[in-house]
């Protein structure tokens, strides 16, 4: 094998592929990155759960394949001087020459490397930036507890031209709807994708204008797998098992009150007031006509109070939230104005941005459980 490649192109491709390398590989070959130099260079990584493959242009002199330590290759590629890179194999070694720098890496047996899973059938495409933003909005609410795997995922529901993403950790729920271009107008599918994998993937595929989503429809091929492709990069992930919560029933159908607050001042006020909130203690919000008063801390400890402007429709209400969860929601609504809709101080409230036009449903909803106030 012998080829030349632009240094930045190599570093970027290797760095992207290396994201999938397992931290503690169950078998040594999974720590490897597979290089396949033919008309283009294909770099692959696989940990039996997630696969990643990128292809990039090269000037090939002698086609071939090799398997080398992925993390070492990533560190070397990142550190190379700004010159073209020549990669060659010599027996059981791979040599990288870049300017006056030369590195020699030992290879692993290519024949022991597992075959990457096939991509499921292409289901449709969506704008890469919008997809990354939508996944980011929802993944924040996914659980981190691996003992309840279904809560660590994002539920992807596809019905015709609408994709709905949902995630919950039982204390909050984030739901985002977006339009996409399905391959078939009647396509429908449901998948539960690991939230971290989905978030990393969506963020890393914004180099292309669109992301193609590959997913087996109901009873079709590609069951148990989802694939994403864009900008010369493709990745697959195994789906999570388990029944996701029936989240639609958690969203209130009507509200007793609605408050609107400028998002940026609200975020800053919550951050300031929560400085005195001990671990797991809430920030209390007292809404009345024209303002909301934020309070944290108790009589025996440090306390903070701040009032900011707010509009209120409905009766005055006192409601309290975990400040971290509240800030997560406020940071992701993507609107200058935060709208908080509530029923009672003990039932879930829904945080949204203000829709562009009155009467429109917001495409992002963040439901948050209040903390019971004592006394």
Automatic annotation (TrEMBL):
Forms a ring-shaped head-to-tail homodimer around DNA. GO terms for molecular function: 3'-5' exonuclease activity; DNA binding; DNA-directed DNA polymerase activity. One of its GO terms (cellular component) is DNA polymerase III complex. Its main location: cytoplasm. SMART domains: POL3Bc. Residues 1-117 form the DNA polymerase III beta sliding clamp N-terminal domain. This is Beta sliding clamp. Residues 127-244 form the DNA polymerase III beta sliding clamp central domain. Gene3D superfamilies: DNA Polymerase III, subunit A, domain 2. Confers DNA tethering and processivity to DNA polymerases and other proteins. Acts as a clamp, forming a ring around DNA (a reaction catalyzed by the clamp-loading complex) which diffuses in an ATP-independent manner freely and bidirectionally along dsDNA. Initially characterized for its ability to contact the catalytic subunit of DNA polymerase III (Pol III), a complex, multichain enzyme responsible for most of the replicative synthesis in bacteria; Pol III exhibits 3'-5' exonuclease proofreading activity. Residues 248-372 form the DNA polymerase III beta sliding clamp C-terminal domain. Belongs to the beta sliding clamp family. It is found in: Cytoplasm. Keywords: Cytoplasm, DNA replication, DNA-binding, DNA-directed DNA polymerase, Nucleotidyltransferase, Transferase. GO terms for biological process: DNA strand elongation involved in DNA replication.
């Amino acid at each position: 094998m012998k080829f030349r490649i632009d240094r930045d192109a190599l570093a970027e491709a290797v760095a992207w592929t290396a994201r999938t390398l397992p931290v503690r590989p169950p078998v040594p070959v999974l720590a490897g990155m597979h290089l396949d130099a033919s008309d283009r260079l294909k770099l692959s990584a696989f940990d039996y759960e997630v696969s990643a493959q990128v292809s990039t242009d090269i000037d090939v002199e002698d086609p071939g394949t090799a398997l080398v330590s992925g993390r070492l290759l990533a560190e070397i590629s990142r550190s190379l001087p700004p010159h073209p890179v020549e990669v060659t194999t010599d027996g059981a070694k791979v040599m990288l020459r870049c300017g006056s720098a030369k590195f020699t890496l030992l290879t692993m047996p290519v024949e022991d490397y597992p075959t990457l899973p096939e991509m499921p059938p292409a289901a449709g495409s969506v704008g890469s930036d919008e997809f990354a933003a939508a996944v980011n909005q929802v993944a924040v609410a996914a659980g981190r507890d691996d003992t309840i795997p279904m809560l660590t995922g994002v539920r992807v529901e596809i019905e015709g031209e609408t994709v709905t993403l949902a995630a919950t950790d039982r204390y909050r729920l984030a739901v985002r709807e977006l339009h996409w271009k399905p391959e078939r107008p009647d396509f429908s599918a449901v998948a539960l994708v690991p939230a971290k994998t989905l978030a990393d993937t969506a963020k890393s595929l914004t180099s292309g204008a669109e992301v193609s989503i590959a997913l087996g429809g109901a009873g079709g091929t590609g069951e148990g797998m989802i694939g994403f492709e864009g900008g010369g990069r493709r990745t697959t992930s195994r789906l999570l098992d388990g029944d996701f919560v029936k989240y639609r029933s958690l969203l209130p159908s009507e509200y007793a009150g609605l408050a609107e607050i400028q998002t940026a001042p609200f975020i800053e006020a919550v951050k300031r007031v929560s400085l005195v909130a001990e671990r797991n203690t809430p920030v209390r919000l007292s809404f009345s006509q024209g303002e909301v008063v934020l309070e944290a801390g108790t009589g025996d400890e440090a306390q903070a109070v701040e009032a900011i402007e707010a509009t209120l429709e409905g009766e005055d209400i006192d409601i309290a939230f975990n400040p971290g969860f509240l800030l997560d929601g406020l940071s992701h609504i993507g609107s200058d104005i935060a709208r908080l809709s509530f029923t009672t101080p003990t039932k879930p409230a829904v945080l949204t941005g203000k829709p562009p036009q009155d009467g429109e449903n917001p495409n992002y909803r963040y439901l948050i459980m209040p903390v019971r106030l004592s006394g």
